[in-house]
Amino acid sequence: MDDMDAGHFPTRAELVTAGLLVDVPVEDAAQAGLAVPVGFSPRAWALYAPDGESGHLGAVLSAVVDTIAQMPGSATSATVFGLCMPSGAAPGLDEELRMEVRPDDAGDPALMLLVQGDYGPPDGPDT
């Protein structure tokens, strides 16, 4: 994304093209009950859905749906609890999956799934 000026915030499509966002297929998101675009940071994708394993991806997306159901109405981010890695191991603190609601290219809600360190340290408790 070096060719973009400092004041430009990249679109979702630009992030996907640049390899900075892995888009979840609409069918997989819909099957889990998500009606908004869902994207993983590359690191979160590698940890939670390597090779796009549909079985584990479905479990991750179901946990995201459960997390959304438990979020206060004004919250825009949360840690997704109850997940294990595809190996069956519990994630370490730096591997915990975070969910953030961010606008998509049209300004509508979209979900971004990331792990600590993807875009800086967490900025405090879930908000």
Structure description:
This protein is an alpha+beta fold and 127 residues long. It has four helices and five strands, in the order αβαβααβββ. A five-stranded mixed β-sheet has the order 1-2-5-4-3. Strand 4 and strand 5 form a beta hairpin. The longest helix has 17 residues. It is globular.
Shape: globular
**Main sheet?**
5 strands, mixed
Helix-strand string = HEHEHHEEE
Rg (C-alpha, Å): 14 Å
In terms of DSSP E residues, the strand content is 15-25%
Question: What's the number of extended β-strand segments?
Answer: 5
Uncertain runs are 121-127
Strand order of the largest sheet: 1-2-5-4-3
Percent of residues in helical segments? 25-40%
The CA-CA distance between the termini, in Å, is 29 Å
What labels describe this entry?
single chain, 127 residues, alpha+beta, five-stranded mixed β-sheet, 4 helices
Brief rundown of the structure:
This protein has 127 residues and is of the alpha+beta class.
How would the blueprint of this fold be written?
Elements: H1 12-17, E1 22-23, H2 26-31, E2 38-40, H3 42-48, H4 54-70, E3 77-79, E4 97-103, E5 109-115
Parallel strand pairs: 2-5
Antiparallel strand pairs: 1-2, 3-4, 4-5
